[in-house]
Amino acid sequence: xxxxxxxxxxxxxxxxxxxxxxxxxxxxxxxxxxxxxxxxxxxxxxxxxxxxxxxxxxxxxxxxxxxxxxxxxxxxxxxxxxxxxxxxxxxxxxxxxxxxxxxxxxxxxxxxxxxxxxxxxxxxxxxxxxxxxxxxxxxxxxxxxxxxxxxxxxxx
Amino acid sequence: xxxxxxxxxxxxxxxxxxxxxxxxxxxxxxxxxxxxxxxxxxxxxxxxxxxxxxxxxxxxxxxxxxxxxxxxxxxxxxxxxxxxxxxxxxxxxxxxxxxxxxxxxxxxxxxxxxxxxxxxxxxxxxxxxxxxxxxxxxxxxxxxxxxxxxxxxxxxxxxxxxxxxxxxxxxxxxxxxxxxxxxxxxxxxxxxxxxxxxxxxxxxxxxxxxxxxxxxxxxxxxxxxxxxxxxxxxxxxxxxxxxxxxxxxxxxxxxxxxxxxxxxxxxxxxxx
Amino acid sequence: xxxxxxxxxxxxxxxxxxxxxxxxxxxxxxxxxxxxxxxxxxxxxxxxxxxxxxxxxxxxxxxxxxxxxxxxxxxxxxxxxxxxxxxxxxxxxxxxxxxxxxxxxxxxxxxxxxxxxxxxxxxxxxxxxxxxxxxxxxxxxxxxxxxxxxxxxxxxxxxxxxxxxxxxxxxxxxxxxxxxxxxxxxxxxxxxxxxxxxxxxxxxxxxxxxxxxxxxxxxxxxxxxxxxxxxxxxxxxxxxxxxxxxxxxxxxxxxxxxxxxxxxxxxxxxxxxxxxxxxxxxxxxxxxxxxxxxxxxxxxxxxxxxxxxxxxxxxxxxxxxxxxxxxxxxxxxxxxxxxxxxxxxxxxxxxxxxxxxxxxxxxxxxxxxxxxxxxxxxxxxxxxxxxxxxxxxxxxxxxxxxxxxxxxxxxxxxxxxxxxxxxxxxxxxxxxxxxxxxxxxxxxxxxxxxxxxxxxxxxxxxxxxxxxxxxxxxxxxxxxxxxxxxxxxxxxxxxxxxxxxxxxxxxxxxxxxxxxxxxxxxxxxxxxxxxxxxxxxxxxxxxxxxxxxxxxxxxxxxxxxxxxxxxxxxxxxxxxxxxxxxxxxxxxxxxxxxxxxxxxxxxxxxxxxxxxxxxxxxxxxxxxxxxxxxxxxxxxxxxxxxxxxxxxxxxxxxxxxxxxxxxxxxxxxxxxxxxxxxxxxxxxxxxxxxxxxxxxxxxxxxxxxxxxxxxxxxxxxxxxxxxxxxxxxxxxxxxxxxxxxxxxxxxxxxxxxxxxxxxxxxxxxxxxxxxxxxxxxxxxxxxxxxxxxxxx
Lengths: 156, 272, 792
Ligand SMILES: Cc1cc2nc3c(=O)[nH]c(=O)nc-3n(C[C@H](O)[C@H](O)[C@H](O)COP(=O)(O)OP(=O)(O)OC[C@H]3O[C@@H](n4cnc5c(N)ncnc54)[C@H](O)[C@@H]3O)c2cc1C
Ligand code: FES
Ligand code: FES
What we know:
Chain B has 272 residues and is α+β, with helices and mostly antiparallel strands. In chain B, 35% of the residues lie in helices and 25% in strands.
């Protein structure tokens, strides 16, 4: 089946089996391997991307369902001038990542969260990331990073 | 993990979806896919064809209709959670929607999908049951309405027949006292036990994950209408109910939790 | 010759330097193994046993072989000539240890749910996985042996040829008479039984392998998400029968390990053997459920611990007996895990008499092996819980009892009754700091107020004071434990002609930040920008020597080697500079990339110049080899012994049994601090895992041996929503055993936190008569404990 969508600003068309999951589509068909797979049950959030600007677990969406939609993956987060997105910077500055496997999904979930709630409390950040698991950081610095990004992005 | 092979067709209208369903016995609707795809990935469901209704734009709405709020079946949890109309007229529903899964799940999952799936462990079906909602079902032969309490039939079994589409959920306004108690171990998880309490004239109570389907705590409701105290009524939370047992909770612990949570729900519902 | 510079440090160590590895990870640019694009690769999928214990009657692979896209399907019989040896166990803890011979695929019998039965190779992942459904296996089921204590009865023997379920018994009883006498004379004794539940390590990146053969050149490049590229290479050579010279192991970005990638798995040897057989690249990536079933589990012990104490509560003897769950087979270091804790069951206390025994038993469950802390969390849990039990029995505060028993500052280096020499410590100061920061008095008042008012939300404070031995390890000590490898680490520091620096390390990071920390060590000594330093690792062709990353060894052993190699390369540069300036080496000072003549700072020669001279070799001192490079392989003289006080505050809902963690304070002492940012991150992560063990996680089985927590929906790895911010502080007691004065910190959080949490839960409920709650202290378990106490 032919699907066409806009991924990180560029229009792509591919022929896929209907059962192809969006995560496999971006990884295998588009070579955008920044989006990871961490579970079989939609529990971990490693695969989080934006569909029309909202966080979605790309392992729980078919590529055919995304036909005609706007997809952003971690590769599309850097700004046009090549600088990292403020959220990415905040993760580095606050040591919000260790092995980095959960990180792309965390960044995508966190940016979606701030879009809906630009000034979250600590607890709102924690609840907002409830669907993203990290085994390395104990979340302490991830939460700090998101709060810092909220402060920083609010200034802009 | 990925599903077995299937055919896929996107329906552009309810009537198109219905006619495909009527022509193919094994075809299944997909809305947000957040109940169906997890099952298909584990190969616990293997439909031959998916009929995608996710893009039928005119099934996604929230409308104030005087005595009730009408919600299109394809309205996403995130939209319900943040809707001013829902917050003002059925605050419990907005709150319950905000507790479903995690934000990414709520961006995709739909109220119609959750209700049609009819999972006894899900939050929204129990909520609409306590709210005495009415479900609008469309088929080739027209439109019919079903009361929520007649809709859930058994384990993942509802009153829907092949060829029928749930199109709207009519939720009576409920601005009196309410409470929703979701007991789980991690925020992202389904309820081990959940309790919805709505004071709208009489008090209605429904239970999550206490049976194979969403159920009303009838013993509690009738005790209350008979004048029992909150404590007395709450003790009857699992009267006549055979709750499931699993790693998180044996049946006896579930019964206990149900009583504690019903009591807390009733206390909260009488104070707001 | 060693020369002392007036400035040996450039002030970089100890700073919160941001990590060099982050931009590639944050941008999605980093490549994990499954990200690699390998044209023409075949996808491997394993059919796994769905029963815990059974004879295989038949396997029908015909339909699968015919399926579209399938290239081959193999069972044990088809591959039995492809092995040079059975699956390896590198730690035969006793000479008579029983180790069931086993191969990557089951030979006539399956021994746990997840055991490999058949392997499919296909042109696509989809075809391989779809074909699994077409294989028919007929099993003749046997009753499974699931609990350690049942296994010990030997009523059903899993590996019949061994004649018993016991793999080994290992004792450390230096002074039996002393122990017996101490118990005979004791004013107080406690006798406790604790359960260490099985834990799924659950690194977020599942295991993944790509093997690329060069069928005509005869070598194999192995991309593997492993913590141990060097050890894996050796083991693959021996198991698959390929010359080590033909193997190159590369660990690309590795998404966490926690011990679970410190192993040699069936899939590791299968992918290599099949790449040899089929002359094609083979790839395999685990699914999460396979990770839960077929990657090792951690912990899994029944612990008996007894303390004898005099009338003041001074502990006079510790006697420990451990029943350890090996699972179905011995993996790489399965039997040795309890031994890594064997010396530490007296904790931070000065205990003169010591006795430890451990027996390893087979069960029909996933094999166990190293999980963050490996042996030491078990030891710390037992002693720290038992100290609370003793405190309760005596009616003294747990904190006071600990103070009475501490090894005193003056006693270091402290020779323990178990035979270790603890390097350094000042426990009292550390505890004072923690107690001061936590504000215990106010909490105690609130705790009592809630009890008095009949509240259903009770407070509990738990303390755990831990010490561990890490920085594995002096090779001779490992030899005395029969460990199959040494404990050294290798490093090379190379200053290139353009004066940029390459550091080659035998450590193999998977999230710990070695690229930053190693660059800081070099930059601190050389006074150059860390961005001019590149750290190379995790590729056996680039870093041929190494013993990899586990056991909190990287910094104290590998980092020290880097430090020494830097010193060595600087000495060579100094000789070149002295030659150029025509002065003696002793007359040179070094700072900020520049050698200067003492007393006449205008006479100078840059490090960059020395690098270029070493490259051109036009004018080097007589006899000096060209190139500016130095290598060091360092074998540490001792372990390091980090320690710290951890305090937890929990709230227990007595109606539902739910435990909420309100506060957690960790005051750790890991010696000198190279990068506080990274240290804190390591502590946070360790705490989360330890707290998860105490409250959430459990690899639970049903009575037929099915793992019922095989997904991340059932196996409760907590999210951000389940934790508070952690409160961290530290003391600094440098280690005398390495030149950096550092101690390991990677495992500390996971070691210290489980007993702090359980002590807190018990503290909240102790007035109800509750003395113990098993891990994980789930709501249901806590509720049952409260119910049982109410019934008396
Ligand atoms: C990780 C995760 C966590 C979750 N946690 C929770 C939770 O805590 N609480 C909770 O309540 N739920 C939870 N859910 C379920 C979630 O709410 C689902 O989104 C919802 O149950 C289904 O909605 P959907 O639109 O995705 O339905 P789909 O998956 O598309 O469909 C579900 C079923 O309903 C049928 N169907 C869908 N729409 C219609 C219609 N209009 N008419 C007739 N039949 C229809 C489909 O054929 C299918 O059988 C979770 C899901 C995930 C993946
Ligand atoms: S891979 Fe999508 S949620 Fe885990
Ligand atoms: S940084 Fe490793 S899983 Fe989050």
